[in-house]
Amino acid sequence: MTNDMSDTFLYTTTLDPRAKPLIDELIFEYDSRYGNYFNADGAAAELNRYPPEAFAPPNGNFLLLVRNGETIGGGAFKRYDDRTAEFKRIWTRHDLRRQGLARKLLVELEEQAARQGYQRIYLTTGFRQPEAVGLYLNNGYTALFDTSVDPEIYKSLPFEKDVSHLAPSYSVETSGSPQRLAAAGR
User: Fold this and answer.
1) Residues 61-101 pLDDT 10s
2) Beta bridge partners of 76
3) Alpha-carbon distance 69 to 165, whole Å?
4) What global pTM score does this model have?
């Protein structure tokens, strides 16, 4: 059971010292699952493939989930194309898994991507991450690969999801004159 009262989202950058636990554990986890399968230099090279600016507004964002001052999860997105955000690095601390934290991060990232104008999410996960595959399939993502075959033949497993329904809606506010547009739900 999560202690929701103390869980907060923090939008920051990959350079924030509070991101270090997330990045360190991602490197450890990717290296333990894949070794140098994808890159001779291991996960650190993959994680450093994109500059911090790729995950900064207006085209991207970087999110940490913090509980009682400790980073317990995170994720990011960057621009994939004009209407699509690409999610990267969705992670929860290994000792806090199976509590719904990854889903909570996924929902928050989807909503933030929509607030930043994206209508579609694209992401990939590795073939040795069945938990991630389950997370995406159970949260409305469409697999862009044949789920009935051994995932290792694909190496990288792509997914997509339409989030256009999350876009901020605008309504005409009639309290007072003149009428003005107000973002609903803000």
Assistant:
1) 999 999 999 999 999 999 999 999 999 989 898 888 889 99
2) 62, 88
3) 33
4) 0.81
